[in-house]
Structures are given as C-alpha cells and as structure tokens.
Amino acid sequence: MIKIRNLSKRFGDLEVLRDVSVDIKKGEVIAIIGPSGTGKSTFLRCLNLLENPTSGAIYIDDIPILDKNTDVPKIRQKMGMVFQSFNLYAHLTVLENLTIGPIKLLGMKKSEANQKAAELLKLVGLAEKAYTFPDELSGGQKQRVAIARCMAMEPEILLFDEPTSALDPTMISEVLAVIRRLAREGMTMIIVTHEMEFARNTASRIFYMDEGIIYEEGTPQQIFDNPQKEKTRAFIHRIRSLNYHIASPDYDLYALQAELEAFCEKHMLSKKASDNIALISEEVLGIQSNYSNLDLSLSYSEKDGGVEMVCESEGNPVNPLEEGALEDDLGLMLIKSRSDNIEYKYENGRNILTLGVKV
Amino acid sequence: MRHILSWILIVSSLLLTGCDRQQLQITNLSLLEGGKTFAVPTGTVADQFVLQRFSNAKIKYFNSAYDCAVAVREGKADAAAYDKPILQNIAAKNDGLIVLDELLVDDKYGFAVQLQNLKLKTVIDQVLAELQSDGTYEDMMKRWFPEKGVPAPMPVIELSGKNGILKFGTAAVTEPMSFMDENKNIVGFDIEFATYIARKLGRQLEIVDMEFGAMLPALSAGKVDMIGAGLSITEERAKSVLFSNSYYPSGIAAIVRDYSYKKQAKTDLKMTGVEDIKDRRIGVLTGSIYDPYVTKNFTNAIAMNYQSYPDMLIALNTEKVDVGILDHSATKDLFDINPKLGYLVESLFTVPIAAGFSKVDIRLREEFNAFLQQLKINGVYDDMIERWDRKGLKEMPVIENKNPNGVLRAGIVSDIGMPHTIMQDGRPIGLDIELGERFAAYLGREYIPVDMQFSSLIAALVTRKIDMITSGIMITEERKKQIDFSDPYYESGVSLIALKKNIAHHAVTHGAILATIDDLADKKIGIFTGTVQDAFIAQKYPQAKILRYESTADLMMSVKTGKIDGATLDLITARLLIKHNPELALLSDNIFNTPLGVGFNKKNPDLRNEFNAYLKEIRRDGSYDIMYKRWFIEDAENAVMPVIESSGVGKKLFIGVAVGDLPYVAYMNGRYVGFDIEMIAKFAERNNYKIEFVQMEFPALIAALTAGKVQMIADGISISEERQKQIDFSEPYAQFQAAVIVSRNRHADFAGEKDLVSKRTFLQGVSESFHNNIVLENRFLLIIDGLKVTIVISIFSALVGTLLGGLICLMRMAKHKLPVKISEFYITLLRGTPVLVLLMIIYYVVFASVNINPVIVAIIAFGLNFAAYVSEMFRTSIESIDKGQSEAGIAGGFTKVQTFFYIIMPQALRNVLPVYKGEFISLVKMTSIVGYIAVQDLTKAGDIIRSRTFDAFFPLIMAAMLYLLIAWLLTWALSQIEISVDPKRKRIVREREVN
C-alpha cells in the first residue's frame, strides 16, 4: 500500500532522515519507536507531505505522491492524521468538526454527514458531546474526537503522531483503547509512540528508528525480547531499566526515590517490591563511602518478573559484605533481609554490588 | 424659604450700616440745632458765635482749627466752627469734610491802618477795586481757595521799592490768608494783596511776622504801617484802627463730616512724588545720611531703620515699608532682581562720596588725595567710573601689588550695591574695592577688606580697627565731626523707590494694564494665521510672542480667556466683535493699513484684466460707493445683501472663500454674504459668468488657486509681496485696517470699572446659546448637511480601506519576496504619514488641476490610510490562530485556500472585530479634517456657525455629541455582527437544525 524508497529529509544542515526505504502493507499496524530527535515524526509527516522530503520517492497505492502532477489534497483525504496537540477546529462544535470534511470535500449531504458523525462519536464514546466546543473537552476526549474526525473521512490509512504524549496516564488508556479497536477492525495504521506496552501488544510490526534510518524492524517479539542490533538492544534495555547517576554526597535522595517509584508504577510492581526497592536503595547508598562517581540502576525482567539492582562506585575496593567492613551492621542486615543473591566484585577500579530485590 | 433668608440678609445689612453713629449727612445749619456738639479752637471768639446761633449747643475746645476738623471727622463732634476760609482750606486738603455754605455769622476781613492814615486806606481800597475789575481778584480767590488740594504758590510780583518800604504786620498762622509755606516763606492771600498795595505805592514790602494778639498794638505803636491776617472788621477794633474796605467776605462757617466720601485705604493712594511720602513709612539705612534727613524733613513720616539694603528691599517687597530712600547707584541692579520695585523719584539730589579717615591719620588722608589726583590725571579714574558706574560692568581688574610691606585695612560694606561694592564668587568687587586695592598698591601695602555693617563703619575707624572707609559713604557735616573725609571720588544721586503698584506713573504702562499697543511689545499677541499681520507684528515687536489662530472666533476666545493679551484683526470685524462682546475693548484702531485684492492664478491674466476693468467701472458709476457704504460704513450685520441673479449661461467660475468674517465674507441664512461676495457676484452678472463659491480654510485659498481648483479667491486678502510671488492680485478694492482688541478689564481706559457681568443663569445661557447656534438662521440645516457628509465619507472610506487592507494583508503573507516587500513599504508609508498631510497631497498634488469632487479625494485618502492599519490587524489576527489547525486542515485533505476560508478566516474574523471597531471609530473622527480640502462636514458646519456667533461652547459641544452619536451607532452595529459571528451563540440554533 505504501512504498517508500530512499526517502531523505534535511532541515538546513541537519539531516534528519538519511535513506529510508520500506514497504507497508494494508492492514498493518506499525509502531515507530526510538529515541527523541531521530526523525520518527518527520518520517510520518513526510508520508502525507506535511513535510516535503528532500529526496526520495513515496508511493501510496502506487501513486507517486511527490510527483508535481499529483493531486495531493485528494490523496490526503484518504489518509487521516492524529496529532499530539489534537488540533481540533476551535470554532466548530464536535459534530461540525467531524462533518466539515465530508461535506466540503466528499460532497456528502449534511444530514448524511451528521448521521455518520453521530455514529462515529458513539464509537469513540462521545455521543453526548456532539454540540460542545473543543475548548470544553478534556485532553483524552479531544483526542478521541480527533480520531473520529479522521474516521469521518473514511480513510485508508491512519497516521498517529505521538497521540498520547500530551495526555496524563488516566487519559492515555481511553485513547489507546480506541486505537486498539481500530486495529482490531483492520485499519492500516502507523503510530509513532512512546507507549512500549501498547506498541508491544497492538502493533504487527515495530520500526526502531535511529541514525536517520529504520535501524531495525521486526515483530514486537523480535524487537522487544530479542533485539539484534546494538543500539536497539541498548534502547530496549534502557527503557526497561532505571539508571541514576550520583556525582557528590549531596545528591538528591528524594528525586531518586521518586524515580524509583515511577519505575515501579510503570512496570506495575507490587507494593512490597516497591517498598523493598526504596529501602534497599537507601541503605545501599547509605553504606557507600565514595559518592563521586556512583551509578545506581534498577532493571526489571519481564520473563521472570525479577528486579535487579546494581550499584557501581569508584574508589578502593571495599566489600560491604565482609565482616567488619562497615561500622554498623544494621544497614547490611536490612539489605540482606530484603534481597537475595547479593554479589560483590571489583572490576576496572569500580566496586560493583549486585543484588536481587525480593518481589 | 429662600425669600425669608434674603429678607433677613437685607434687614441685617441695613441694621449694620445704621450702626454707625450719627450717619445722617448734615446739609444745612438747621440740622445742627438741638444740642449738637461743636468743636472750637481755644482763644477765639468762635464759641461765642456758635452759642449766639445755637443756644443749646455743646462746645468742645481744641488747640487749633485743624484739630477741630479732625475731631469732626472722627465723630467726636458734630461740627466745628471757625472762619470760613480757614475751614475751606482744611476741607480742601482733607477728605471726608465739607464746609456748609450757610454761615453762622457773617464776617468781613480787612486790612487795618493807623486811625489817622486815611491816605493808606484809600490806596488799599483803590487797589482792591482795581484787582476786582481786572480779574486778578478772581484769580487770587481761585488760587488761594482751590476746591481740593493745596493753595497754589505765590506768584512773583515785581516791586521797585523806590518810594521806601511798606511794613506789613501779619500773623503767619492762618492759612490761606497768611501763612508759612514749605520753604519758610510767608505767603497767602493777604500777602499777595499786600504786595499789590506795595506795588501801587512803589514801595518794597517788608513783612513783619508776629503773634496775632500783637498785631493791633504794633500798628498803634507805629511799628508797622498796616496789618492783615484774616483780620475781622469788628466794631470793637474799629475804635482803635482804621479798616480798609472788606476785601474778603468771610464769616464763621461750620465744617461737618462728609459721608459721601469713602475713605480709601492708604495703600490705594498711589504716590506720584516726594510730597506723597510725607505721611508714609520710609525705609532708611541705619547710620546713613538719610536717617537724619528723613527725620528732619518728613516729620509726619515714620522712619524705619534697616541694617542693610537687602533687608530694606525685603521690607519693601512685603509692604512693611512704603518707600525706601537710598543711593541711586545702589539701585542699578536692584530692579533686575526685584521687578516689583520701581523709582518713585529717580534723583532727589546728589551727594559727594569720599573715603573716610581717622582724624588722627592726617598723613594717610593726604596720601589718598594725592593718589586720587594721580588717578584722575592718568585717566585710570575715568576708566573706573566708565566701567563701574556708566556701564555697570562687574569685572574686577587684577592690580599688581608686589612685596607689600604692611597692611591697609579698608572698611567695606559688601552688600551696599553697585557701583560701590557687591559680592561676586565669594569676594567683594566694585568701584570702592578697586579704589582700595589701587591705593594699597600705591602705598606698597597689602589690601585687606574688612566687611561690616554700614552703621559700624565710623566707630571702627575711630577706634582704629580699620585704617579707612571706602563704602560709598557720603560727606555730611555730622560725620565730619567724627572723621575726616578725603576729596570726593564720586557723586551719588539719591533715589526713592517703592513697589510699582503703589507708584502712580507705573500703573499704566507696566504690568497687566494696557494703554497703547506698545504695551503689548513683550506680551502674547494673537493673529489670524497666514495673514499679513504675522509679518508686521513679528517685525515691530520682536519680543512679543505670536500665537496663530485659524479663525476669528478662536482669536476672540483666547483674548477672553486670557490665553493671549491682545489680538490683531480687521477693524470692522473688531467693531462688530466688541458690539457683541462687551468684555472686549479696542486698544488701537489703526496699527497699519494694507490694500486688499482679489487673487488670480498667474496663468490667467485675462480674467484678472477683466476684473480690474470691472472695478474701474463700478467706482465710476457709483455702485462701489453703495456697496462700500453698505458693508463698511453701516453695520455690516444688518446689511441686506442684494439678490444678484447670475445668468444661467456663461462660463463657470469657482470662487474660493474662507468664510472668515463680515464685512468681507460670511455665511448667513443659508447664503454667502459680504462685500467681497457682492462685488464678485456683480462682476459675474456683468461679465456673464456663472459662479460657484467654494469654501475652505483661509490658508488653503492660495494653494487652491494655484492648483487650479478655483479661478478667483477673495476674503479680505491683503496684497503682500510674499503672496504676489505665487498669485496675481487685482487692483486694490479696499483698505484693510488692522486693529487690536484686548480684554476690557485690562484696558487702561476702563481700569477700575466694575466687571460688567451680565447675570444669567446657566440654563438661560445654554438655551440662549442653543437658540443662537442652532435655531437662528436655520443653522441646524448646516449641521444636518455636515452630518450627512461625515457619514458618507466614513462608510465609504471604511469599505475601501477594508478591502484594500485585505489585499495588502494577503500580499504581506505571501511566499514570494516581492509582494511582501511592496506591502511592507505601503504599510510603513501610510502609517507614517499624518492623514491631514496625505489628504492635502492627494488633493493638491496628485489631483492638481483635476476637477474631482473633494469628497472622493477624502474617501481615497482615508481609505488608503485605513487599509494600512487594517492589513496589519488582519495579519495579526490570522497569525494568532494556532498552526496546528492549519495542519489538521491540510492533513484532512483541504487545500491551502480551503483551509484558510473554512478554518482560519472564521476564527480570525472573530478575533479582529474588537480592534476593527476601534479603528473604525478613529476613522470617523479623523474625517473631521476634511475642511482643509473644502469639504463641508460636521466639524466645518460647527466652524461656520462659530464664525457667526463667536460662541465656542455650543457648536463645539454639539459637534462632539454628534460624533459621539455616530461612533456609538457604528459600535452597536459592529457589535451586532460580532455577536452573530460568535459560534457559541449559534449552538442552540445549530442543535435545533440538526435534530
């Protein structure tokens, strides 16, 4: 359905997309993930020519959309885009937002358009809000209206540019639910997202974009569980674990604790696990002697549900597990009581303490 | 309630005034009956005469006739009785007293000679008869018995004295018969009479002054030849002397209080000269010669002592003292710092100034005199006087004094003033200082000035604390007793100074009162802009501040409200103005004349020649005289403009006029009237032209003529060289006389007049104003017409401006550079040019010589200006819609244009409306300037009415109210649109639509 050949996009001196070539078939749900600034949104916006590619070719249903003679607006009518900032038409009611396109562009009759629109609103659960104005809706509602607006044009492809990034966690789920439903109904969708869980569960294919190209692509299993390439792995890993760097004894313990808590929430760890992590991290840091270059990391293995904490510090080899190494044994006792598999090694001038948190 | 209050006020004020004791004005003797109190001088027979007439009278005794009169004036007695001439003299010199005509007792004065000296008596009688017949007697009466004031001085009468001496005994205490004047000469009626007698006899007159009571015995003893001093002829006396015929019909009269005279406060009386300081407070410098001078010479005055001149000046300024007496030289700089003070007498007398030395220090004094002599010889003295005295320079030269041996301590008074000594930059300078320094150098000693109070100088010198005094000290006999003086080195005059407002001869020419136009030389003068008076006044009074006004009404308002001190106008206009505005007065009726002419385009000499020919004709056939009389001689306001039919055929001529004032051009009863109008209308009739008058601002007339918009201009236009550079004039058809008007209460002639404020209530004033400005002569029609024009121009300019603005906006937001640059240039240009300037450029430059309706020009100009602002407003409101919505539109399949029209524009429009409303109203108000291109809008209508009624308040307020009304209506209309465009309002409607 969509064929992309050697797509490149440059903003001045900055080359955002280097050389992208890929095919997208009908009914596929593509999730595009990757670090920020790697051209994910740019790639998406090139597809409907919101950005003009510097070079390359894009074919939608075998029509070269970069050709001068192509009626681009017409093609766009077949593609819907959902924006991070919703972009609803402020001067029109929700219903009118949905009907303006079909009436003006598809030549639909008003009554027909209204009817269709009402149905769509029902689909997204906002039938009640037909006569409200966008500024009277919450973020999640706005986004759902935006999706319905796209649907009103009966598109073949839907493009989502970080649809949930502007929403708070409570609203994210309602939007994702709608998207999932569309996916189930066989809509071809390309979604740029940071919601890894969602991507894993809903997408049929994952693009990991990095270095201006589609660095690695594959099924969710392939990408999330078995990333092949270096960077992919690093990314996957990074999103799975929390890394905290400490540079001085005056580090912000509370910030650290907050991040740990967020991590726990994200991975939906039990309260017990969360408490243990908090306590252990505090104690582990408490028994350190050198704070000048300390890294604390927490990683979660989905496979076995285990949580591993690693603490790396500089300085002379000090094994806290040794008797008498510490002034006071209380901390160590607490640590030991809540963790298992405590290991210590000294490598490359760094003390490395690894332990598994009891979950 | 109000009635009762006013009655209470009236009654109480009557009561209060009645509270004055014996307020009843006594007009004849009968009113003195019934136990009234008489004041009488002791030692006279006046009391007898009083009791003779008024048996019940009470008598109070005083020392002199004068004291009696004072008693009467102060209410201590009802009347004083004494010899009539003496009482008359007192009444003449003192206000508040009046002598009753009726005499208590008749009395006659005569000269007395020895009983046996019939010969002398005959001569006396003869002389009397002669004097009476040749009128001298009458002169004498007038002279010695003036109605008011002091008797005139004694005339000089030549006496040969070849026949010996005539001894005349008199008691020189009875003014005005025989008394001593200021110069201690014995003068009087009797003295003059006696002199004539002596003349007749060919003898010298020797006056022997004595006690009154001694006169008779002296005569009897032959010590004098005749006596006279207001001597009454009585039977008693006639026994021992021989009286001449009565030369003065006297009698005992009564002097009473004159209530009709209101005693003015002393300070109201302005001083004219040194006589007036006799009873004032005179300020003197302690220890100066004036101290004793004042005490000795002005016994009735109060001498106030001050330690320094600055102290005295402060006292003068705060009115603690009435006049100050000081060295003339000290007054030089004084008036600059104290503008409220002026000379009462600039030079009373002069006194020599010298340096003072101790009596012991003879040598020093002699050295000083030698030094002074040297200075005079080598010219340094003259130079010093030139610099310090005449030129009043304040530069101290450097005087070399090497290796001084010893000191010269000179007592100085640092604030005595120029040219002697003043302080500058912390050190004393002046003539006296320079003199001292030079002397010190001459002696080879160090000069040390010792600053002290004037009054301490002599004491310091005597006690050898200082070696000499140089501080403008005058040589006096008194001082010579204590110190020695050098030869004089300066002549100082003595001046009297006082506050200008108390000096009679200052009041007229200084300050607020104006007597002649020269008084305006340093004031604010208003003139009609663009007229010849501008150049004239600027040249004649370069110090004056000239303010320029657009209309006579403005000029007049400014004079009335005190914004300018005087205004120059055409004389006839001025007269008309004063007729309607009694608060104005004519200061001068002829400051200059200029000829008036009708203006023609230089390119059109034929028309001009035609007109000149016409002028000649009408002068010849008398029509000119009739016209002139109608408009210039008689009251122009009542003139009836003859109806002159302009023939329907013939070439069309546009005549530019400014509707200034009568008698030239005015707009009354819906048509143009005035001399110029009649003259031109007649011209058109005779030469077969069709004329149309075009009205504009005066300064615009010439521009309109040169641009070809009109063929002739007339409105009392003066022919001037400046103007002749641009246009040609016809032969002069009248003379313009310039006059100056000022506020009446500042005019010297009317000074002191009570304010003539016509008492009208505010409402009365307003309704009168309303009638004058709106109803009279159907003036409201003018307003309606003006209103129509304003509305038309406003709406069409807005339309043009909005459309053009949209276009410019589009260009401004285009992708290509060119349209962007063009639109940016347009916006900058139009926003940076004042609308008035733009308007005139388009009318006079762009459309010069094009016959275009000025209303269209106005619409173009305002439209262009409006577009510049509107385009930016549009752009801002468009850019204020977030880009996301555009993207959503594009992404949704809309073209750029569709996105703009369906999504952006509806929202932008809603955003721009509030600001647009404001700009629109600004536009409406801006249109008020179209008068400059001869469009008669609402503001101009107000101006025209104002030029007729000279009323500022009503026409302006009316115009303002109408503008407000228009603005309000338009705002309302736009708000309606705003509401209808608000989508939220239509939600309910839409809901209903869908379901």
Feature tags:
heterodimer, A: 359 residues, alpha/beta, Rossmann fold, Heat Shock Protein 90, 2 domains, 6-stranded mixed beta sheet, 5-stranded antiparallel beta sheet, 12 helices, elongated, B: 995 residues, 10-stranded mixed beta sheet, 36 helices
Structure commentary:
The complex is a heterodimer of chains A (359) and B (995). Chain A has 359 residues and is α/β, with parallel strands linked by helices. Chain A is built from twelve helices and 15 strands. In chain B, the strands form eight sheets. In chain B, strands 14, 15, 16, 17, 18, 19, 22, 23, 24 and 25 form a ten-stranded mixed β-sheet that branches. A five-stranded mixed β-sheet of chain B has the order 2-1-3-13-4, with helices on both faces. A five-stranded mixed β-sheet of chain B has the order 10-6-11-5-12, sandwiched between helices. Chain B is elongated and about 145 Å long. Chain B is built from 36 helices and 37 strands. Chain B is of the alpha/beta class and 995 residues long. The chains are: A alpha/beta (359), B alpha/beta (995). Chains A and B meet through helix 2, strand 6, helix 3 and helix 5 of A and helix 32, helix 33 and helix 36 of B.
Low-confidence runs of chain A: none
Number of strands of chain A: 15
Tell me which protein chains meet in the greatest interface and how many residues each side has: A-B, 33 and 24 residues
Secondary-structure element order of chain A, N to C: EEEHEEHEHHHEHEHEEHHEHHEEHEE
Tell me, rounded to a whole number, the average pLDDT of chain A.
Answer: 88
Indicate the CATH topology of the largest domain in chain A: Rossmann fold
Main sheet properties of chain B: 10 strands, mixed
Straight-line distance between termini of chain A: 47 Å
How far is the N terminus from the C terminus of chain B? 73 Å
Beta-strand portion of chain B reads 15-25%
Specify the number of helices of chain B.
36
Q: What average pLDDT do the residues of chain B reach?
A: 82
Strand order of the largest sheet of chain A: 6-7-8-3-9-10
Estimate the global geometry of chain A from the Cα principal axes.
elongated
Number of helices, counting only DSSP H or I runs of 4 residues or more of chain A: 12
Write down the domain tally of chain A: 2
Provide the low-confidence segments of chain B as ranges.
17-22, 263-267
What is the CATH homology-level superfamily of the largest domain in chain A? P-loop containing nucleotide triphosphate hydrolases
Helix content of chain A: 25-40%
